[in-house]
Specification:
Blueprint lengths: L2 H9 L4 E5 L5 H12 L11 H10 L2 E8 L4 E9 L6 E9 L8 H13 L8 E7 L4 H8 L3 E10 L14 E9 L5 E6 L3 H8 L6 E6 L10 E7 L4 E8 L4 H14 L4 E7 L5 H10 L3 E10 L1 E9 L13 H18 L1
Parallel strand pairs: 4-5, 8-9, 11-12
Antiparallel strand pairs: 1-2, 2-3, 3-4, 5-7, 6-7, 10-11, 12-14, 13-14
Length: 342
């Protein structure tokens, strides 16, 4: 690009500012998603202005926008509920109009969220991000805004999701990083198989837990409660274990069979660490090829423990990590995955 071309581009950019959502922004958000993704973004919500207004009003999503002085939406970042506990919000679904990239808009959107917006929201107690590991940009910015890396999801997203930018040849992993805004000290139970690994993660948090070894078996009459969510476009199934009962082995098998029948190649189990019986559930899953994932803080209001199973090859060599903590976590996971391959 010549200097003249660069100057012309800057002349075409309006001044903009970062702001919370207004109902009149919904049409602009739809136009932005169409400009960047065409009709192919997997979350159809972002093609429906009325639905965008409704989820913002209900607090299911919060859209933070970069708005020009004339009212055009040129960038957006979202907070939204994706965990079982509704006061945990994920941040993501962020994008910027091509003509305004390399202007620092995404960084300013994220800064507004964590420095201005979230501290005023009494219903947001914890935030987290899934940080893709085919680059380190989101890893750097998220850690800068005081999020702690606690888990790593192997092979989360298909390479096809990154066709346009050509940044992945295999399935892409994602780090999970959490920030506590409203501490809630509580008791958690640690499975013996991962005692030291989990204690290492917990030592990094700035809010406290009472850590107790999980040694008990579920009593007769206690029934397991497991829900499942399928993400067809990614071939990922997430199985949330809210209650661990005496019937856990059979109950989990039934739900897992449904996930595999639905063509999932990545199976994720979310176990509630508030259950004294989590150790027995971890033992069962380890026997079935599941391996370590990490901690999901406040996931059920109490903490969650991620275990994962792959029906596809992991691309460990393609995982790009920034911090020493993330690299240590990957080594823990690789060793535990190797156990499942023996």
């Amino acid at each position: 690009m010549t200097v003249d071309d660069d100057q012309k581009k800057n002349q075409n950019q309006e001044e903009f500012y970062i702001d919370a959502f207004r109902p009149e922004d919904a049409e602009g958000i739809v136009r932005l998603f169409r400009a960047v993704y065409g009709e192919h973004y997997p979350i159809q919500l972002f093609y429906d202005p009325k639905a965008i207004v409704e989820v913002n009003d209900a607090g299911k999503y919060y859209s933070i926008v970069a708005r020009t002085v004339s009212g055009n939406i040129i960038g957006v970042e979202h907070l939204y509920r994706s965990a079982p506990y509704p006061s945990v919000y994920e941040f993501g679904a962020g994008l910027v109009l091509k003509e305004y990239r390399n202007t620092g808009i995404l960084t300013r959107l994220i800064e507004f969220i964590f420095e201005n917006f979230v501290p005023q929201m009494h219903n947001i107690e914890e935030t987290f991000g899934e940080l893709v590991c085919n680059n380190v940009f989101t890893q750097k910015s998220t850690i800068h805004f005081r999020h702690v890396i606690t888990a790593l999801e192997i092979a989360l997203m298909p390479a096809a999701s990154y066709t346009q930018e050509k940044s992945a040849t295999g399935r892409v992993a994602a780090l999970d990083a959490f920030r506590c805004f409203k501490p809630k000290p509580h008791r958690i139970y640690i499975p013996a198989a991962y005692d030291q690994d989990l204690r290492t993660i917990y030592s990094r948090l700035d809010d406290s837990r009472e850590i107790v070894p999980s040694e008990d078996m579920a009593p007769a009459g206690l029934v397991s409660r497991i829900s499942m969510e399928n993400f067809d476009f990614a071939q990922v199934a997430r199985l949330a274990v809210h209650e661990i009962g005496k019937d856990f082995s059979d109950a989990y098998s039934n739900v897992e069979k449904q996930a595999i029948a639905g063509k999932a190649v990545v199976l994720q189990a979310w176990l509630n660490l508030a259950s004294p019986y989590v150790g027995s559930a971890v033992h069962t899953l380890r026997e079935r090829g599941y391996f370590f994932g990490g901690v999901l803080t406040r996931w059920f209001d109490s903490d969650g423990f991620l275990m994962q199973k792959l029906l596809c090859p992991p691309d460990f060599d393609g995982i790009v990590l920034e911090s020493a903590d993330a690299k240590q976590l990957l080594e823990i996971i690789k060793l535990d995955w190797e156990r499942t391959e023996v």
